[in-house]
Amino acid sequence: MFDNFLIRNDSLENVYKDDKAIGFKFAARIADYRGCFLSLHNGYYIECDGVEYPRDLQKFEVNGKEPRDFEEIKKCVWEHWNYDDEGYVYVEKEGGLTPGLHTIKFQQSILATYGYMPWDAEWLKNPPVPGHGAGSGKTANICSFDLELQERR
Amino acid sequence: MSIKRGVSLYSYQQAQFFKQMNWKDMIKEVHENLKTDGIEIIDEAIIRDYPFPSEQFIFDWNNEMARYNMNAVTMDVYLDVHQFRDHIMTHREAAERLKNDIKIAAKLGFKNVRPLCLVPIEVIEMALETAEKYDVRIGKEIHAPLPIKPGTRVQPKTGMAAALDFRMSEQIIELAERTGSKHIGLVPDFGIFQHSPSQVSIDYAKRKANIPEAIDFLLENSKNYSLDDIGTVLSEKYPTHKIDPGTIERMSLHESSANPEDIIDIIPYIVSIHGKFYNMTEIPGKPGCYEDLAIDYETPIKYLKEKGFKGYINSEYEGQRDQQDRGIEFLANEVEQVRLHQEMLSRLIGEKI
C-alpha cells in the first residue's frame, strides 16, 4: 500500500549537531490503512545508495516528541501513531549525505496483527528484522525512492 | 423498508492519506451525493488520538453526524496482540481492548462494533456484558477465506486460511443461543463471495513479479491444485520466482470461500454487511449500470431480499491499494468507485430513488 508515497519526496535532509552533519532524515507515513500503537513500530529496512543502515542506527520522531530509538519506541505501549500523521525517520551517518540525488530503498516494520497468529511467540522473542517481509504490514515489497537532498534550513 | 445502503469510510483511505478528504468531507459525500445515511469507520483511522479521543473530537463527530442526520452503523475494531511487547496479550487483556472499543463506539453513537475473525470466541464472550450495558452489538466478521458453513470444504494448512476457524459462524450462533444475548452477531464481508482475483490485483502482481508469466500460470492452473500444493508446483515450474505466499494465495483464488445460499440461515444474526469491492466496471450493453467482475453480489443480495434482511450493506472499496505503485496519474478515484458501487447496490436491492 502507498508503495510510491510512503516517503515524502521533498523531505530528505541532513541532520546536524553542533554544526556537523551526523546523519540524515526523511518524512514517512504508515504503510497501512490505520494507525497503530507506537510500541508495535519495529523499525525500517533502509538502504541508501547501496549501503544498509540497520535498526540500531535509526530513530523515529512523532507526536511532537524528540527522536526516539526503537528500544524506547517499544515501551510506548499507550501512545498512538495516528494514520493522518507523518513521522521523521532519522539515520545516523557521519558527515550526512552529499548534495544531489540519493536512492533510498525502504520497508517499514510494524508488528500489527489481526489477532493471534502462529508466529506470536517467535515475534515476541525475536522480532522480525525489517526488510524480510515479516511484519511489513500492507506493503510487502521493498520500495525504492529517488530523493533530492534538501538544502539546510 | 428494504436493505439499506451505507459507506465504510475505509473506502476513502487514499484520499485521507493525501489529505484530499477528511472525515467530514466523507460524511458530506455520503449524504449529498450518495443520498444515504449509513456510516462505518475504522477506529484507528478516523478517531484522532485513539484510544483516548478528546471530548472535543467526540462532540465534533456527533455534531457532524447530527448535522446531516446520519446513522453511525458499525465501528471496525482491531486486536494487536503485540502491543505490550514484553508478553503476548492474554485473552483477558484482549477483552479489555474490546470493552474499551465498545465504550468508544457508544460515545460516537455506533450501534455495532466489528471485531476481526481471528478474535477468540472467549474474548467476545468476556466483552458481552459491556456490549449489553452500552447497547452496542458485537458483530464478528466473516472474512475471506472463511466460509459461512464449512460443509465439506477442506481447510488449507498454509496461508491465512490455516489460522482461521472455519466453524466461526457456528460458534457465534451457539454463543448467542446459549446466552440469549441480542448483542452478539456477524458481519459478513462480500469478499467471501469473491470467486476470482480482481484485474487490478492481477495487474499489480504482474508489475511486481520477476517472472510475470508465473502469475498467468497461477491464474490458469490453481483450480487443479489445492492451496497447499500450488506453491510447490509453481516453484517446480519457475524455480527463480519470488512471489510471496500472500500473492500466491490471492492469485490462486478460483472459487468463493462461502456459498451464497448459506447466508440465508445467518440473516437473524447479521448486524451489518461489508460491501467489499475492488473495481467497478460498466456492464456491457447496460449503460450506467456497474458491477465488480470478481465478486458475486447478485445472488447473495437476491437471498437477502427474499428473506427480508433490512440492515445495512456498507461499501468497502479496496482496489486503490493495488494502484499506488506508480505515479499519481495512476491512482484510483475512490469517490467515483464508491458512487458506482452504490449505483449497483441501489439497483440490486431494488431501492426507489
Outline of chain A: globular
User: Structural class, from secondary structure content of chain A?
Assistant: mainly beta
Structural class of chain B: alpha/beta
CATH class of the largest domain in chain B: Alpha Beta
Secondary structure tally, helices of chain B: 15
CATH architecture of the largest domain in chain B: Alpha-Beta Barrel
- Considering the protein shown, what is the CATH homologous superfamily of the largest domain in chain B? Divalent-metal-dependent TIM barrel enzymes
Element-level helix/strand string of chain A? EEEEEEEHEEEHE
Q: Which value, in Å, is the CA radius of gyration of chain B? A: 20 Å
Number of domains of chain B: 2
Counted up, domains of chain A total 1
Which term fits the overall shape of chain B? globular
What is the number of strand segments of chain B? 10
Residue runs with pLDDT of under 50 for 5 or more positions of chain B? none
Notes on the protein architecture:
The complex is a heterodimer of chains A (153) and B (353). Chain A has a five-stranded antiparallel beta sheet. In chain A, strands 5-4-10-11 form a four-stranded antiparallel beta sheet, with no helix packed on it. Chain A has a two-stranded antiparallel sheet with strand order 3-8. Chain A has one domain (3-148). Chain A is globular and about 45 Å long. Chain A is mainly β. The mean pLDDT of chain A is 95. Chain A has two helices and eleven strands; from the N terminus they run E-E-E-E-E-E-E-H-E-E-E-H-E. Helix content of chain A is 7%, strand content 37%. Chain B is an alpha/beta fold and 353 residues long. The mean pLDDT of chain B is 96. Chain B has two domains: 4-195 and 255-349, Divalent-metal-dependent TIM barrel enzymes (TIM Barrel, Alpha-Beta Barrel); 209-254. Chain B is built from 15 helices and ten strands. In chain B, helix 5 (91-107) runs parallel beside helix 6 (121-134). The chains are: A mainly beta (153), B alpha/beta (353). Chain A binds chain B through residues 1-5, 29, 33-37, 39-40, 74-75, 77, 80, 82-84, 111-118, 120-121, 123-124, 133, 138, 140-141, 143, and chain B through 10, 13-14, 16-19, 42-45, 48-52, 78-85, 87-88, 116-120, 162-163, 208, 244, 246-247, 321, 324-327.
